[in-house]
Structure formats: structure tokens, C-alpha cells
Amino acid sequence: MDYPKKLLEEVKERSKGMRLEGINSGSGPKHPLLMIVGEAPGRNEIVNNIPFSGDTGKELDKSLKQIGLSRDQVYITSAVRSRPFSVKKVFSKRENKEVIKRPNRKPTKKEVLAHAPFLNYEISYADPQIIVALGNTGLERLLGPGHKISAEHGKVIENTPILELNTAKDGYVWSKKKYTVIPEYHPAAVFYNRKLSDDIVKDWEVIKPYIDKERESNE
């Protein structure tokens, strides 16, 4: 996805003063069988400009393969398209001195709002029917605060509007179009809790009948 220059300039202006690095554009076809909305890119994604790359990407690819999909059939993006980072002073044994580290972190609600024009544009461009929200940030961006992956993973929310940036561009309104939204654990969750592996497999199986139906309607 090549964002229009005007859109890039708008989001950069909205993001001024925020600890965000680079731009990693979303990727995928128009009318995908599935759209994925994650949290934000990490360092790998900023370097190679590939959404969900590295070990997290391998986990996502396994889930897609499980339901008969490849990346070229899916539009992949996230609530924030820059890398949120924090600044920490730590002691480096290798260098024998205190150094500055800039690790990844969860984006703030202000950062999600600053990047809302990107997701609006991508949803309008891709025009998906099925959207998978990976993690709480993506889920809340689509359906609002109070929704949690831990409570809703693997559930199918059919015929629902999603949140779009309002005309004043300072908040959200509900979309006129309705979608099928399916909350799922973020692929990286398995690195912190291996017990989630079975749940992730079961939850993605829930998606398969909806993908099969979408395939039939596109034929």
C-alpha cells in the first residue's frame, strides 16, 4: 500500500511530539477474503516494511495456512502504522556503561486516534467483509473501549458497525456499513503464554466457515 502524500503528511502532523518511529504501510488486495487489524509495527516491520514479519509473522502465517489462506489473499494492517517506543536507561555489561534503549511498547489512545486516518483509508480501499482484530488495541479501535480479547477471542460478531474517524477528525463515529468482526489473540501472545497455543488453533478454526462462505460469494 502506497499512502497518498496528503494522507502521509496529515498523519505525520497529527503525530507530532509522539514517540513514534517510521511508517510501515499496510499491505494486501482490494476485496480480500480477510482483513487483519493488529496493534502497531515493531522494529522489524519498520526496517523491512513488511507487516507482521519475524517470529510474530511466522505465527500469523501458520494461522492463515490453517484456514487455507496465504498472505496475498489477506489485507494486513494495524491501529497504528508507526512503531511506538519508550526511552529507558539501562546498564550495558558489554559496554560497561549506562545506555539508552528504545524498546517497543503499546500505543496510547492518542496515538491510535492520530493514526485513525490510515485505517479509515485502508478499510475504504480494501472494502473487506470479514475483519479479524488481533489483540486488544485492534479490537478497541474497531468496536470501542471495554472489549477484551481475553473474554471475546474466537467469538464472531456479525453484522456490526465499526468505529471510523469523524468528520472533525477528533473522535469516532459508527460506520454505516456493517462487518463481521472476529477477535483473536495477537500472534505474539503465544511467546508469553505457551498455554494459549491450543486456544489460538481452536479460535482460528471458527473463522474457516466464514472464509469458505466469502470465497463462494466471490466466485
UniProtKB/TrEMBL annotation:
User: Where is the secretion signal located?
Assistant: none
Q: Which residues form a coiled coil?
A: none
Instruction: Name the keywords, alphabetized.
Output: 4Fe-4S, DNA damage, DNA repair, Hydrolase, Iron, Iron-sulfur, Metal-binding
Q: Does the keyword Metal-binding apply?
A: yes
Which organism does this record belong to? Lactobacillus helveticus CIRM-BIA 953
Q: Which residues form the Uracil-DNA glycosylase-like domain?
A: 25-205
Q: Which GO terms describe its molecular function?
A: 4 iron, 4 sulfur cluster binding; deaminated base DNA N-glycosylase activity; metal ion binding
Q: What is one Gene Ontology biological process annotated in the Swiss-Prot or TrEMBL record?
A: DNA repair
Q: Which Pfam families match?
A: UDG
Determine the domain of life of the protein's source: Bacteria
Keyword Translocase, does the record have it?
A: no
Supply the InterPro entries for this chain: UDG_Type-4/5, Uracil-DNA_glycosylase-like, Uracil-DNA_glycosylase-like_sf
* Residue intervals passing through the bilayer: none
What PANTHER family does the entry give?
TYPE-4 URACIL-DNA GLYCOSYLASE (PTHR33693:SF1), TYPE-5 URACIL-DNA GLYCOSYLASE (PTHR33693)
* Name of this protein: Uracil-DNA glycosylase family protein
Q: Could you read off the lineage of the organism from its UniProt record?
A: Bacteria, Bacillati, Bacillota, Bacilli, Lactobacillales
